[in-house]
Amino acid sequence: MSIDDIRVYIRDRILMDPDLSLGEDDDLLLSNVLDSLRVMLLVSHLEERLGFTIPPEDVTLENFQSLGQIHRYLDERRSTV
Prior knowledge:
Blueprint: H1 3-14, H2 36-50, H3 61-64, H4 67-80
């Protein structure tokens, strides 16, 4: 899954704002782009698309703060599954 796939899902499906600009390093959590409910929607979508579970203890600021961090986390997680 690419950064752009994640960006499009957040922008179009979670936020329902296809015109919103989301950069790879934009802070999604502290800027309130994603709140706890939206993070869980994203996690559910990622698990469904990628076919593995994301443990609750991995849903952290370090792993889900930006598109780049989400992408890096998913790559690391995929290599351990």
